[in-house]
Specification:
With 345 residues, the protein is an alpha+beta fold. It has a single domain, classed as Jelly Rolls, CATH 2.60.120.10. 17% of the residues lie in helices and 32% in strands. It contains seven helices and 24 strands. The strands form five sheets. A six-stranded antiparallel β-sheet has the order 1-21-18-23-15-14. Strands 2-3-10-5-8-13 form a six-stranded antiparallel β-sheet. The longest helix has 14 residues. The chain starts with 11 loop residues before the first helix and ends with a strand. The structure holds 2,5-dihydroxybenzoic acid. 2,5-dihydroxybenzoic acid (GTQ) binds next to strand 3 and strand 10.
Length: 345
């Protein structure tokens, strides 16, 4: 590939004249904005240990009252982007949030989309647009763009969950903001039960729901059962994996980030081709190995890691006796809409 002219090759007075008029020559930067064959990736393979972060999160509970935090979160930041950017990847934000018994994280709504993957504790709930969503380990709860949400806790032990937001992307597009509100009145609970059987959806008086986000809570007990049934009924399939979708239309459950759950059979090893999306892996149950680009991360329960895009990944179950269950987040819905999604086989 042809070497291009450098900035230093240009006379000082010419560079100054360009700057004076807010102009920039393209050629010295052309190879950096359009690198050959593959993007220059800032996202670094990064691992966050739950046992490592848990005591620090609990200490935040002592150091900072909920009123002074609103959301008591330690952000899982990727050093490749700079920790202060609070990014796990170019588009994904990850945070571990703590709510202590009796605490309340007040109602607000914002433009970024969020989901919560519940890690530990009992008795907490998120209320989303009036629907009370109990939080149990492994549940996925959506708080899509613009929907009111608040978190409460009636139990007696700390509750911790993983927040996954498209905040870096929404912030980058200069559309990120929040509106604060009053405590919501609970108007529904258990609405997801109407969607627990595949193939049928509520259609009162022949009318299908027109809700953009009909299902807000994906209970882990049901997702786990589905994965186990899939492993039994389809022994030939390579990946025992389910996608979290909108049950009314089968589309991704949110517009920007995509979510799935994967089961590794005991002893199983799964080779995944390079995809253009960075991926986040979070261990729900069991123990898995994630290896990519010469990095090997051993995930124990509640551990999380991120692997950059355009990288083949090997997942392995570190137990020969028990299945391993992994929650996966990526930005495939966004990349597909943009037309840049690729799988390199
Ligand atoms: O729980 O609403 O981790 O607004 C970051 C921003 C959680 C939340 C985060 C948020 C929330």
């Amino acid at each position: 590939m042809q070497e291009l002219g450098r900035l230093e090759d240009l006379p000082e007075d010419y560079r100054a004249a360009l700057t004076e008029q807010n102009l920039v020559p393209l050629w010295p930067s052309l190879r950096s904005v359009l690198p050959p064959g593959k993007p220059a990736l800032r996202t670094k393979p990064t691992f966050w240990s739950y046992q490592g972060l848990r005591p620090l999160l609990l200490r935040a509970g002592e150091l900072t009252p909920i009123e002074k935090a609103e959301r008591r979160v330690l952000v899982l930041a990727n050093p490749g982007h700079g920790l202060e950017k609070m990014q796990a990847s170019s588009t994904i934000y990850l945070g571990m949030q703590l709510l202590q018994p009796g605490e309340w994280a007040p109602s607000h709504r914002h433009t970024p989309n969020a989901v919560r993957m519940i890690v530990e504790g009992e008795g907490a709930y998120t209320t989303v647009e009036g629907e009370k969503c109990p939080m149990q380990r492994g549940d996925l709860i959506l708080t899509p763009t613009g929907m009111w949400h608040e978190h409460g806790h009636d139990g007696d032990q700390p509750v911790i969950w993983l927040d996954v937001l498209d905040l870096p992307l929404v912030y980058y597009t200069e559309t990120s903001y929040v509106i604060e509100g009053k405590a919501q009145t609970v108007t529904a609970e258990g609405a997801e039960q109407a969607y627990q059987r595949g193939g049928v959806v509520p259609a009162p008086m022949f009318t299908r729901s027109r809700q953009t986000f009909p299902m807000l809570r994906y209970p882990w007990v049901d997702v786990r059962k589905t994965l186990e049934a899939l492993a039994v009924s389809r022994p030939e399939i390579e990946a025992v994996q389910v996608a979290y979708v909108n049950p009314e239309n089968g589309h991704d459950c949110q517009r920007i980030l995509g979510f799935s759950a994967l089961m590794l059979r005991p002893g199983e090893k799964l080779e995944m081709p390079a995809r253009s999306t960075a991926m986040v892996f979070h261990q729900i149950e069991g123990a898995a190995g994630v290896s990519a680009e010469g990095h090997q991360f051993d995930l124990a329960e509640a551990d999380t890691c991120c692997i950059p895009g355009y990288t083949p990944i090997t997942l392995s179950n570190r137990s020969a006796a028990h299945p391993a269950f992994i929650f996966i987040a990526d930005d495939a819905p966004l990349q597909k809409k943009l037309g840049v999604y690729e799988v390199r086989t």
